[in-house]
Design brief:
Blueprint (H helix, E strand, L loop, with lengths): L2 H15 L5 H14 L9 H20 L4 H8 L5 E7 L4 H15 L4 E7 L4 H6 L10 E6 L5 E5 L4 H14 L4 H14 L2 H11 L1
Parallel strand pairs: 1-2
Antiparallel strand pairs: 1-3, 3-4
Helix pairs in contact: 2-3, 3-5, 7-8
C-alpha cells in the first residue's frame, strides 16, 4: 500500500467510526430488529429476517458461555497498544453471530482495546477496502492504532479452522451445501470460540 492509498484508507476508517456502535448498542439494535421482524442490510427478505432471529439467539448464548482461559487472559491483558477494533457485520450473518461475541469478550479483558461495530451495507467504502479474496465477506475485524488509524492487522470472516474447512469443501465440491453449513454450525458449537481466541492472541503477540 503506497502513502496515498494508506491515507485514503485512514480517511475511510475515520468516516466509518462516526457511525460506529458499541457492542451493547449493536446487541440492542439486533434485539429491536427481532421484535420488529426485520433485519439490517439493504435486503429485507424473510430469509434474512429469520437469520437475524437465529443470530440474536446465538449471540445471547455466546455472551453467557464463552470463556477465556488463564493463559490467554494473561496474554490479552499484557497488550498495551491503544487500538480500536472495527468490526464490519450485519445482523443476519451466521459467522458473525459466532465470532463477534467472542471478539467482545476479548476486548473486555483489556482497556486498551476499544471495540466498535459498523454495518457492511452502510459502509461500502470501508468494506471495499477490506475485501477477503475479492469478496465482501463478514465479519471482518480491522485493528487500527487509536491515535493514527494505521491498520495493524485484519481478521475474518471465520476462525482459522473454519476457514480451512470451508476452503477444502469448496475446492472439492465447488460451493457450500446446506449440509456443510449445518456441519459448520456444529463445529462452532463444539469449539465455543476457542479458535477465535487463539487466533487473536497470536495476532496480539
Amino acid at each position: 500500500m503506497n502513502v496515498l492509498e494508506e491515507q485514503m484508507t485512514k480517511d475511510i476508517i475515520f468516516e466509518s467510526l462516526k457511525t460506529s456502535m458499541s457492542y451493547d448498542q449493536y446487541r440492542a439494535l439486533v434485539s429491536s430488529l427481532v421484535e420488529q421482524k426485520s433485519t439490517t442490510g439493504n435486503e429485507k427478505s424473510e430469509a434474512l429476517t429469520y437469520y437475524t432471529l437465529l443470530s440474536h439467539s446465538r449471540m445471547k448464548r455466546w455472551d453467557k458461555v464463552v470463556k477465556i482461559n488463564d493463559e490467554h487472559q494473561l496474554k490479552i491483558k499484557n497488550y498495551t497498544k491503544d487500538v480500536t477494533w472495527i468490526v464490519i457485520t450485519e445482523s443476519w450473518c451466521g459467522d458473525a453471530a459466532h465470532v463477534v461475541p467472542v471478539l467482545n469478550k476479548i476486548a473486555q479483558e483489556n482497556e486498551h482495546i476499544d471495540l466498535k461495530l459498523v454495518l457492511r451495507d452502510d459502509n461500502d467504502d470501508l468494506m471495499n477496502a477490506f475485501l477477503t479474496k475479492g469478496s465482501r465477506s463478514i465479519p471482518k475485524l480491522i485493528s487500527v492504532d487509536s491515535g493514527t488509524n494505521e491498520v495493524l492487522f485484519t481478521y475474518g470472516p471465520r476462525p482459522s479452522v473454519a476457514t480451512t474447512m470451508v476452503e477444502a469443501f469448496k475446492a472439492k465440491h465447488g460451493k457450500l451445501t446446506p449440509e456443510f453449513k449445518e456441519e459448520l454450525q456444529h463445529w462452532y458449537n463444539k469449539d465455543k470460540g476457542q479458535t477465535t481466541i487463539s487466533d487473536i492472541v497470536a495476532l496480539l503477540n
